[in-house]
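Re: your question about FMN dependent NADH:quinone oxidoreductase

S., sorry for the slow reply, the queue was backed up all week. Below is exactly what I fed in.
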Amino acid sequence: MSTLLLIESSVRQRDSVSRQLSEEFVAQWRQANPGGRVLNRDLAREPLPHLDADLLGGWMKPAVEQSAAEQAALARSDQLIEELLAADVLVLGAPMYNFAIPSTLKAWLDHVLRAGVTFKYTEQGPRGLLQGKRAYVLTARGGVYAGGPLDQQEPYLRQALGFIGIDDVQFVHAEGLNMGGDSAAQGLARARARLAEIA
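Result:
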């Protein structure tokens, strides 16, 4: 049975383009995988703490030396990684905020990029441990940035996911959503056409 993990990060519940795209992707994926399972984590409704000393302590200290807060941080990281390990397909809903990903999505990455668990250091350098997974990143952007110097989302997410071994990553960009005229409708139509190709 195939499993899809959906990570939503838009702070908007209504009228969120990235959520519209992820909803359409999941619906198409369910049609293609009728026995599949979907795990959903909404980082806007349930934001994760940012990387802090408790999480680092939970990762680095022996269990007998951990405080209650460090144990709780470790358990939270373990749960998030278990969800990721269980998934064959990862879908990230990632609106662009101030040229980058939402800070809540960065916090999720900080919890799951974990030495010895999702990657390890070798004599040849770091090696990702999550090979064989596919990822789709569905973005929503007010302007047009894909392929340009101001696009800090796609290069960063490719690097972060590749670092843990997820190299098969496809992006669907809904762009020009705040540029006036027909740009929003055209940007969303192009994104939906791309979505239909890959989902």
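The chain has one domain: 3-198. Residues 143 and 176 are 4 Å apart (CA to CA).

Happy to talk it through on Thursday.
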